[in-house]
Amino acid sequence: MSIIELMARPIAFQRAFVDLGVGIAGALMLSQCIYWAKRVTDEDGWFYKSQQDWEEETGMNRREQERARKALKSIGVLEEKRRGVPAKMYFRVNEQALEKALLGSPQALELEDALETYRSTLNGLSKTGLMRAKKLGAKAEYVDYSAVLKRDGMVCGCCQKPIVYGPGQHGKALCFDHKKPLAEGGDHTEDNIQPAHVACNVRKGGTSQSSMSTQDKLSMSRVEQPSMSTVDKQECLPKANKSALIEQTITEITTETTPEITAERTSGPDRPDDSSPPSGETNPEPDPEPNRPDAAIQNGRFWGNQDDLDLAVWMWDRLAEQLGQDKPRQPNFSRWANTIRLMREQDNRDPRHIRVLYNWCRQHDFWAANIQSPDKLRDKWSQLVLQRKTERRKPAAESRDDRNAALQRIHEQRNSGQSGVTYEHQ
């Protein structure tokens, strides 16, 4: 298929579906469901799609499909049914529920559905909230936001009205609020945290816009009130597994699109083109670089001395030389140098051994494609060393076997040559 033929098959995407709180993936799947619902012969509107069909049409993998389906079912706009032998999954759009949701009266999100659909998002928010509270110097402990929901239910602690959407940033979305704001001396403890609407949290406020990040200011201009605690605002951000944060409107920051998981999924230590360290928090202002006299390169908590940097550059040059024109973009050398420093200081690895083992990986049929960064080298160190030693012993053993076999043949030839020979004594 040519590129022109490929581009001639676009997918319809209804932007309004993002406002339902189902994320970009959920909106994409719902758009495709609407497309097929009008093109089936079944009188009740059921249509069949396999996992492979969804992936070919939308590009979503299995995990993304499952999350999108759960989100759509949680608000009642998508119905599923297995039928036939062998059983196949059929789908149908609940048009009445969809119409109510678009008009602002979606089906109430049940607590069990919220805990199941947004389990990973709630775990991410729990970690983010703890880190940001510690950053501000507040008394903080790890708080499981799922436990907070189980305790209070899907009810806003500010207005006492039901919360019908999952985590997001539009006014009716779920977020978590400090009853006594951290800026006023509140603690980050389970007793001081309650579920709330984003809009209710905004009304509560607590910090001027001047102390907020650019993303917070953008968000504030699109909800009901202009002031909101930076900490509370960040706790409304769900994690996700899509490729980027889309800032077209505040409602697009949903369970599939936030910067935390974006960096983790698209870069990560396993990729040589990793350009940003994974972090569970978004700092409103960058911290000053700490004083490290030996640092030849540093970026926040990532740093290394000149030897670490030289070795990192050498590793990249070896990889780039091997891949040629197919090489990825230049990596984050501060992170590479930091990993090499940790290998020296924490793992007691000799830089010469690091160089030798990485060079062996570059020449290996299997590991050349799997070890392309210091992070992966450090992670697989023991396995790589053991395999290298094993493969180095094989040629020596084979040479000994060959030598012994040759000696045996010579001995047999001599014996066979002397047999039957008569020596005459004069």
Automatic annotation (TrEMBL):
Residues 203-236, 250-301, 388-426 are annotated as: Disordered. Residues 393-414 have a biased composition (Basic and acidic residues). This is HNH endonuclease. InterPro entries: HNH, HNH_nuc. Pfam families: HNH (PF01844). Residues 143-202 form the HNH nuclease domain. It comes from Marinobacter subterrani. GO terms for molecular function: endonuclease activity; nucleic acid binding; zinc ion binding. It comes from the Bacteria. Residues 206-231, 415-426 have a biased composition (Polar residues). Keywords: Endonuclease, Hydrolase, Nuclease. Residues 250-266 have a biased composition (Low complexity).
